[in-house]
């Protein structure tokens, strides 16, 4: 069964991009495409501190929520995600 691309898909993709921008690494890595795909489907992303990155927990929480496996656990819209990300920065810059 083929699933359609939804807002939740875009939010996941934004989460991957944010993860890479903030840590310098992709959230999942492996020796093969199937290995990486399996991690996307089953494994939680590693914590930022495993890459030596220290950011406010609220920032990491936004990224982690955008990478939730179940679409219903992600943000309901890109606007909601961006608002939460801005709020997580607390007016500070990275």
If you had to describe this structure to a student in words, what would you say it looks like?
- The structure is a single chain.
- With 94 residues, the protein is mainly α.
- 52% of the residues lie in helices and 0% in strands.
- Helix 1 packs across helix 3 and helix 3 (57-66) runs antiparallel to helix 4.
- It starts with 6 loop residues before the first helix and ends in a 5-residue tail after the last helix.
Features:
94 residues; 4 helices; mainly alpha; single chain
Shape: flat
Radius of gyration: 14 Å
Measured distance between first and last alpha carbons: 41 Å
Low-confidence stretches: none
By secondary-structure content and strand pairing, the structural class works out as mainly alpha
Task: Report the mean per-residue pLDDT as an integer.
Answer: 92
Order of helices and strands: HHHH
Largest sheet: none
| DSSP strand tally | 0
Fraction in helix? 40-55%
| Count of runs of 4 or more consecutive helical residues | 4
| Fraction in beta strands | under 5%
Question: What does the secondary structure layout of this molecule look like, with pairings?
Answer:
Elements: H1 7-23, H2 33-42, H3 57-66, H4 78-89
Helix pairs in contact: 1-3, 3-4
Q: How would you summarize what this structure contains?
A:
The protein has 94 residues and is mainly α.
